[in-house]
Design goal:
CATH superfamily: Zn peptidases
Number of helices: 9
Structural class: alpha/beta
Strand content: 5-15%
CATH class: Alpha Beta
Distance between the termini: 16 Å
Largest sheet: 8 strands, mixed
Strand order of the largest sheet: 1-2-4-3-5-8-6-7
CATH architecture: 3-Layer(aba) Sandwich
Number of strands: 8
CATH topology: Aminopeptidase
Number of domains: 1
Order of helices and strands: HHHEEEHEHHEEHEHEH
């Protein structure tokens, strides 16, 4: 197979297309980053700024769907800094779903970034595939959740380009990049220590391995559940996934008999959650499950893989199975 053609982010056509899609100084920052230069210190408004705006917001005019010619675009986030990391966008040239995959948000969760590096080699039949394999790159090399003073990327969205914490700045760049490519789906690949179905009397985020949660809407839940069911039929009982997502307070999959339910996360006021959202208390927070609030039309899916007595190569394989199955259901593979 011949190699995919490389799109030049420096060409006049690409520059006009880029600026027309996102517009303004924020787009220019992302464009310069894609070209390998230094992005200006500008970007999106913070969540606090948005929520503090007085009065009702006018109904926005829907933006036309972006069109990306067939080929490959490579880009950098936080270019020319020690936290710089690379990403890739593979475009089929045909209209279809756009999927964004994040790995390495936490540096001690290798199954996620190993899977994302494999997924970055996939070529979609329709739509586009965008992958950032090691979002918190330095932490993946140090094999720590996050570096000293970096901040937690998955607690920092939508980010702040002027924050002293680098992962808050990274969150802002990821959101800006996503608003350029406008993915319909975000798959954020994570790991927990213990398995959710083996938690017994314990709870907390250390016991959410082999689970899937989403912060999208009830309309997207069937694809998530069907993809999970297909994968569960192909793997052994211990590896099987639990859907922790709920829809508007209606319970999701019941816990195993004899187990103690996991404590719920702090509830978010209804005003900040999406109408009809799945896992509404999580969708209102600052993790990737709230992505639909910052990237219009995006359904975030957070996959947690259990580390205890499960080799990292198998964890990576299960991540790729879930993402690949979902993309197959979307007609992309």
């Amino acid at each position: 197979m011949e190699p995919e053609p490389q799109l030049s982010a420096r060409s006049p056509i690409d520059r006009r297309r880029f600026l027309a899609l996102v517009g303004g100084v924020s787009a220019l920052g992302a464009f310069v980053a894609a070209c390998g230069g230094k992005a200006p210190s500008s970007g999106i408004a913070s969540a606090a700024t948005v929520e503090a705006s007085p009065g009702p917001s006018p109904t926005p005019t829907p933006r036309p769907e972006p069109i990306f010619p067939a080929g490959v675009e490579r880009f950098r986030l936080m270019p020319d800094t020690q936290w710089e990391t690379s990403g890739i966008a593979i475009h089929s040239g045909k209209q279809g779903p756009r999927v964004l995959v994040l790995g390495g948000v936490h540096g001690n969760e290798p199954g996620g970034w190993m899977a994302a590096e494999q997924i970055a080699d996939w070529v979609p039949l329709i739509g586009s595939l965008i992958v950032v394999p090691r979002a918190n790159r330095l932490s993946t090399y140090a094999f720590v959740r996050t570096g000293d003073g970096f901040g937690d990327l998955n607690r920092a969205y939508p980010g702040n380009p002027n924050s002293p914490q680098p992962m808050s700045r990274m969150a802002a760049e990821i959101v800006q990049m996503a608003n350029y490519y406008r993915p319909h789906w975000l798959f954020d690949l994570h790991e927990s220590w213990m398995f959710y179905n083996e938690r017994g009397p314990s709870g907390g985020t250390a016991f959410i391995g082999q689970t899937i949660a989403s912060g999208g809407t009830a309309d997207t839940l069937p694809l998530i559940k069907k993809s999970m069911d297909i994968v569960n039929e192909r793997i052994n009982l211990r590896e099987q996934f639990t859907l922790r997502t709920t829809v508007s307070g209606q319970g999701g999959q019941p816990p195993p008999a004899g187990s103690t339910p996991r404590p719920t996360e702090t509830a978010t006021p209804a005003s900040t959650a999406l109408p009809g959202s799945v896992t509404p208390q999580l969708a209102g927070g600052s993790s990737s499950l709230g992505f639909a609030r910052w990237v219009d039309g995006c359904t975030p899916v957070l996959i947690e893989m259990g580390q205890y007595e499960q080799h990292e190569s198998r964890r990576a394989e299960l991540h790729t199975m879930l993402v690949g199955t979902a993309m197959g259901r979307l007609g992309m593979l």
